[in-house]
Amino acid sequence: MIHMTLCFDEGTGNQMTGGFLTDRQASYGWMFKLSEWTHLSTYDVGLNTGSSASHIVVIDRKTKRLVEELIDSKIVMSMRAIYQSKIGLRLMDQGAKEILQNLSEKQGKKMNSVESAQNIPSFLEFFKDQINMAEVKYPLDHFKTFNEFFVRELKPGARPIACMDQDDVAVSAADCRLMAFQSVDDSTRFWIKGRKFSIKGLLGNDVQSDAFLDGSLVIFRLAPQDYHRFHSPVSGVIEKFVNVSGSLYTVNPIAVNSKYCNVFTENKRTIVIISTAEFGKVAFVAIGATMVGSISFVRQEGDHVKKGDELGYFSFGGSTVICVFEKDSIKIDEDLLANSARSLETLVTVGMQLGVSFPKLENCVLEP
């Protein structure tokens, strides 16, 4: 039974194949399937790998395989000490926030220096199986600083957009680990554990948030190895930009899953309101994080954007985009909802289908 489980196809359940990348990952698949077969809650499986273990496991939407995210163990220990304890967060309140801000600014300047380009080869080596240089628009010698490489552009067509001619189909805004919830209540039940999280807190005082209060929430978490330009998930007109100052906590699940920390409502962020014909208004929130002091946009108020159009980029680090849809405006794809209900992030790329507007309920299939 163990052998069959390790070879079990996560997507169809009727195909025998080897797909886990490591022995450790195979053991995750065994636990994942066992929890389903014995009718145990799969909620703990996803959450524990993100918040309290020394590794993060996500499910790749293309291959339907569990994949381990590489994080240095010393960094994991540090984050847990800070974000998973009252003592750690008390230190934050007593001056560590300013340290993070200064550290991010200092690191940003360093990564813009010519000398920083020397770090690119070692970065590629560490993430050699997760960065495809064949997709990158320019050759490696084009990048004169690390940050130039970090915000690299991709070749045209590298990220096909699902149902490009159908504006009632929303798409992924980033290469990321995605969590999607049909309601805000689901997001706080399965993933966001900060006691003070709310849509009003996320959008701030300068955005009329009433229409979003009972809406759908999609979280796009970018890791350092990801393509760091973010794109519009919908077609519409950019109504306004709102900047909210704040801290630069990490957006790693260790912090997001902490009941002591309110990452999304306390971090520096920019809110973009996109007015659409199919989904009503969509709040696109770009959130800064540790080592990401800079959020840059390439669009302006009044611009018309097509889904898949670039909106901007994050400089060095990892960060997050959150999209909030008005209530009953989108039907999010079932596989994304099912994974999120297990507290399991889904690895996706820009342009993959996210969901469809009500009352349209047909899926648009995009071949990998």
Automatic annotation (TrEMBL):
Q: In which pathway does it act?
A: Phospholipid metabolism; phosphatidylethanolamine biosynthesis; phosphatidylethanolamine from CDP-diacylglycerol: step 2/2; Lipid metabolism
Identification of the protein by name = Phosphatidylserine decarboxylase proenzyme 2
Q: What exactly does this protein do?
A: Catalyzes the formation of phosphatidylethanolamine (PtdEtn) from phosphatidylserine (PtdSer). Plays a central role in phospholipid metabolism and in the interorganelle trafficking of phosphatidylserine.
The cofactor(s) it depends on are:
pyruvate
Q: How does it assemble?
A: Heterodimer of a large membrane-associated beta subunit and a small pyruvoyl-containing alpha subunit.
Residue positions of the PTM Pyruvic acid (Ser)? 319
In the record, what lineage is assigned to the organism producing the protein? Eukaryota, Viridiplantae, Streptophyta, Embryophyta, Tracheophyta
**What reaction does this catalyse?**
a 1,2-diacyl-sn-glycero-3-phospho-L-serine + H(+) = a 1,2-diacyl-sn-glycero-3-phosphoethanolamine + CO2
Q: List the InterPro entries.
A: PS_Dcarbxylase, PSD-B, PSD_type2_pro
Q: What PTMs does it carry?
A: Is synthesized initially as an inactive proenzyme. Formation of the active enzyme involves a self-maturation process in which the active site pyruvoyl group is generated from an internal serine residue via an autocatalytic post-translational modification. Two non-identical subunits are generated from the proenzyme in this reaction, and the pyruvate is formed at the N-terminus of the alpha chain, which is derived from the carboxyl end of the proenzyme.
Species name:
Arabidopsis thaliana (Mouse-ear cress)
Please report which protein family the annotation says this sequence is part of.
Belongs to the phosphatidylserine decarboxylase family. PSD-B subfamily. Eukaryotic type II sub-subfamily.
* Annotated GO MF terms: phosphatidylserine decarboxylase activity
Keywords, A to Z? Decarboxylase, Lipid biosynthesis, Lipid metabolism, Lyase, Membrane, Phospholipid biosynthesis, Phospholipid metabolism, Pyruvate, Zymogen
Q: Which Pfam families match?
A: PS_Dcarbxylase
Q: Where is this site: Cleavage (non-hydrolytic)?
A: 318-319
Q: What EC class does the entry list?
A: lyase
Q: What is its EC number?
A: 4.1.1.65
In the UniProt entry, which residues are flagged as the active site? 175, 231, 319
Cofactor comment text: Binds 1 pyruvoyl group covalently per subunit.
